[in-house]
Write a structure and sequence with these properties.
The protein is an all-alpha fold and 227 residues long. It is built from nine helices and no strands.
Length: 227
Amino acid sequence: MNGGLSLKLTMQQIGYALIILLGCLSFAIFLTINSVWLFDLNIHALHLSAATGMSAERMHEEYLRMINYIQNPLTHSLNFKYFISSPNGLQHFKDVRHLVIFNNVMAVIFVPVSFVLVRRLNKKSLTWMLLTPIKTVVIFSLVIVSIMIVNFEQVFIYFHELLFRNSDWIFDPDLDPVINMLPDTFFFECFTLFFIVFLALHLWLYILAKKSLRSEPPLKSTRSGKQ
């Protein structure tokens, strides 16, 4: 009887954790992609005008065009005003677009569902069920962050090889000069922002889980459910 109850509890934990993980993941990705302010900060910090021969205003325009294309389902083509593009470069943006729109759909579904689920668990003082999944996700994330700090280039390459089945993501600056305003340092900052948001969400969940653990001990809650 206890074994069956324990298995049911474990399956619930996994189910809740997966839903909330997808909510946090899709939200952090969405927020990172739409952080145009980060690009604007880097225009001056990374001397992108010197790298592109273009004014900050024009680069800002081009970046907005790119962001609009990769996530707006009503925009069907990417037409830079000041940059030329190769067929392979445009294909890569198209591949990125598919992934980003998929993530946005996931966010629309799982962010509100996750919020409602966490709210219900918190009201019932059952948020403690998320403690083990939270610790697992955080440890795994910190391992990735550590590797990223040591060798971001390798992480960046593996990331692209994992998500894309071609080499279109390797841009030639002569054929796709837009890459000159997107240096590795900027992508490192994007990854960093993603993990800050993602881990901040899990810190919030961890605080809620610890509070529910103090207010409603797991064993007491399990016995109540059994009765």
